[in-house]
Design a protein that fits this description.
Helices cover 3% and strands 48% of the residues. It has 533 residues and is mostly beta strands. It folds into 2 domains: 437 residues, Neuraminidase (6 Propeller), CATH 2.120.10; 83 residues, Sandwich (Immunoglobulin-like), CATH 2.60.40.1930. The longest helix has 9 residues. The radius of gyration is 23 Å and the shape is globular.
Length: 533
C-alpha cells in the first residue's frame, strides 16, 4: 500500500438499483484455529488436501522501513491441511538450498498449478547474500502430491522441489495464468530494498507494464523456458496487488481479465477500468468501472452457459469505494472493506458491478484466496459451471487467511497491532434459484466517464478527472447542496481518454459541500466534494 491524499466523497444514491440475482453466496466459518494465520500466500491441492507455501504470518506491513516485511513474519514452512477433517501437518524449509528457502518464504509470489506441478514465480523477501529485501528472479516447481505425502510422513521434501533462475521472473504482486500451452505473467512489479511509505530512497521499484508470455518444458527433472514476445502497455498494464481472473468470453473463447489494480500513472489511486486478455492480445475496457474490491482478494469465477453470462465474485479486501446504507462512498485512503460484489459480463459483452446482500464477517479478505472444491463441475480454467451444479446449495470451495484489520483505515496509524494474518477458514456455498436474493447494480460501473475528484476534503481547489471515448462537448458544473448552479463550463474539444481540469470553489461562502457534475450528450456523473474551512 502507498500513502495517498485523504479523500472522502459521496456518489448520489440513485446509482444503485436492486436487481434479482442469478445466485447467492453463503459463507460458513469453520472452527479450525490450529491452522494458524497466513496472508499473501500460494497454494496447491491434491487428493482433498491443500498445500500452503510462502506468505506472511503477520498483518498489514509496518510503516518503518527496518520493521516492514521483517524475517520474523516469513512463513518458512510447508503447511498441509485437510479442510474436512481439520488435520494439519508442517515441514520446515531448512533442508532446501538457501535460494529455495528464500523464495519459498517470500510474499506475493505468482503461482499456477498445472496437473500435479505447482509453479511459483518471483516473490518479495529477504536475500541473505545482499542482506536486503528483494524480488527473487526464480521459477520454482513443486510436485504437490509428493511434497504433501513427504510432509505428512516426515520425509525429505528436497527431491520434489526444483528451481531455475531467470531475470524476467523477478516479479511480485502480479498473476500467473495458463491459457492453452502458454503461461501469462500479468502485471506486477520488481521491488528491491526496504519498503517505506514516504517514497524515501530505501528501495527501487519498476513495474513490468507487461504481459510476459512463455512456455514451460518440464520432464520432471529439468525445466526449460521458451519465452514468447511480451505485450507492453505502460498506460494500462501498470498494475500490481490486484485480481486477474479466468474468464469465458461471450463468443466462447477462454481468457482472463485484469481487474482494477494500483496505481494509476498520474495519481496514486486505483484503476477503475479492466483489461481483457486472450490468446490474440489484450483489450482495454473503458466501458466498465469497478468500484468495489480493488486489491488482491479471494475471487470466485462462475459461468452460466444457459444465459451466456460470466460472473466474477470478489470477497472483501481493500478498495477506494464502499457502500454505506445505499450510498457509494469514495475514500482515497483506500481502506479495508467488507464488500462482496459480483461483476457480470452479459451475453452482449457489457459488464456491470452488483453489490451482494452479504458482507465479509469483518474487515478481511485482502491477501486471501478462494480455493476451489475439485469435486464441483468446472472447466479447464477452474471456472465453476453453474448450470451443471446438481444441488440447489453446493459447497464450491473455501476462503482462507488474508489480512484481518481492526478498522477500515489503519494505514496511517499502523504499528503492527491493528491487524493480523487471519486463521479463518470459511466454507463457500453457492445457492441457485435464490429468488429472494437481491443485488444492487452500481449503474456508474457501466458508464464511461470514470469520474474522480481529488483531493477531498478540499480547501476549494480540486482536480476533476474524467474519461471520454470520442470528441464531444463536456459540461462541468458545480452546484450547491440546494441545487443552485454556482459554476458551469463547457469544454468543446476535450482529448480522447483521460482529461483533468482544476476548479476553484474558494469563493463560495458558508458552504460545507458542493456537487460536481460532468456530463456528455448521453452520460452524466455527479459527486459530492466536502469543503474544509
Amino acid at each position: 500500500m502507498k500513502q495517498v491524499i485523504i479523500l472522502l466523497f459521496f456518489i448520489q444514491i440513485h446509482i444503485l438499483f436492486a436487481q434479482s440475482a442469478p445466485f447467492q453466496v453463503v459463507l460458513v466459518p469453520q472452527d479450525f484455529p490450529e491452522l494458524g494465520g497466513l496472508q499473501s500466500y500460494a497454494y496447491g491441492q491434491a487428493d482433498g488436501l491443500i498445500l500452503l507455501v510462502g506468505g506472511r504470518l503477520d498483518g498489514l506491513h509496518k510503516r518503518q522501513p527496518f520493521a516492514s516485511f521483517d524475517v520474523a513474519g516469513n512463513n518458512n514452512q510447508f503447511i498441509v491441511f485437510d479442510p474436512i477433517n481439520h488435520t494439519k501437518w508442517t515441514a520446515n524449509l531448512s533442508s532446501l538450498s538457501l535460494e529455495l528457502q528464500e523464495q519459498l518464504s517470500s510474499t506475493n509470489m505468482q503461482f499456477y498449478q498445472s496437473g500435479d506441478i505447482l509453479y511459483l514465480v518471483g516473490g518479495y523477501g529477504y536475500d541473505n547474500a545482499s542482506a536486503a529485501r528483494m524480488t527473487f528472479p526464480y521459477l520454482c516447481a513443486i510436485n504437490v502430491s509428493n511434497v504433501m505425502q513427504a510432509v505428512i510422513n516426515n520425509q525429505s521434501i528436497t527431491p520434489f522441489v526444483r528451481q531455475i533462475a531467470d531475470p524476467l521472473f523477478a516479479v511480485t504482486g502480479g498473476h500467473l495464468k495458463k491459457l492453452y500451452n502458454t503461461y501469462y505473467l500479468v502485471g506486477g512489479n520488481k521491488f528491491d530494498g526496504n519498503y517505506n511509505p514516504m517514497g524515501n530512497p530505501t528501495y527501487t521499484q519498476e513495474y513490468t507494464n507487461a504481459i510476459r508470455k512463455f512456455e514451460i518444458q518440464d520432464d520432471g527433472i529439468s525445466i526449460q523456458i521458451i519465452h514468447k514476445p511480451s505485450i507492453i502497455d505502460a498506460a494500462n498494464l501498470h498494475r500490481r496487488d490486484y485480481n486477474v481472473v479466468a474468464q469465458r468470453f461471450p463468443d466462447g473463447t477462454l481468457g482472463m481479465t485484469a481487474f482494477s489494480g494500483v496505481f494509476q500513472a498520474n495519481v496514486d489511486l486505483p484503476f477503475l477500468n479492466s483489461v481483457d486478455i486472450d490468446s490474440n492480445g489484450h483489450y482495454v475496457n473503458n466501458n466498465f468501472q469497478q468500484y468495489y474490491n480493488h486489491y488482491h482478494c479471494a475471487v470466485l469465477p462462475v459461468y452460466q452457459q444457459s444465459s451466456n453470462q460470466m460472473h466474477t465474485v470478489f470477497f472483501g479486501g481493500i478498495a477506494q469505494y464502499y457502500n454505506d446504507g445505499g450510498t457509494l462512498v469514495q475514500d482515497n485512503n483506500v481502506p479495508f472493506v467488507r464488500s462482496i460484489a459480483r461483476v457480470t459480463r452479459e451475453a452482449n459483452g457489457t459488464m456491470g458491478e452488483h453489490l451482494m446482500p452479504i458482507q465479509m464477517p469483518g474487515y478481511m479478505g485482502a491477501g486471501s484466496e478462494f480455493i476451489l472444491n475439485p469435486l464441483v463441475p468446472h472447466d479447464e480454467q477452474h471456472i465453476i459451471e453453474l448450470d451443471n451444479l446438481s444441488e440447489d446449495t453446493t459447497l464450491v470451495g473455501y476462503i482462507y487467511g488474508g489480512i484481518h484489520s481492526s478498522a477500515a483505515n489503519i494505514f496511517f496509524v499502523n504499528t503492527g497491532t491493528e491487524s493480523f494474518a487471519s486463521n479463518q477458514l470459511m466454507n463457500v456455498y453457492l445457492v441457485k434459484n435464490q429468488v429472494s436474493g437481491i443485488d444492487l447494480l452500481n449503474t456508474q460501473s457501466q458508464g464511461k466517464l470514470q469520474l474522480q475528484v481529488y483531493p477531498n476534503p478540499s480547501d476549494g481547489e480540486f482536480i476533476v478527472q474524467y474519461n471520454i471515448s470520442k470528441i464531444e462537448p463536456v459540461t462541468i458544473e458545480i452546484r450547491s447542496t440546494e441545487g443552485k448552479i454556482l459554476y458551469t463550463e463547457t469544454i468543446t474539444s476535450p482529448s480522447i481518454g483521460i482529461n483533468t481540469i482544476k476548479l476553484n470553489a474558494r469563493k463560495i461562502k458558508n458552504a460545507s459541500a458542493v456537487y460536481v457534475q460532468v456530463s456528455t450528450s448521453n452520460e452524466k456523473a455527479t459527486q459530492k466534494v466536502i469543503l474544509s474551512e
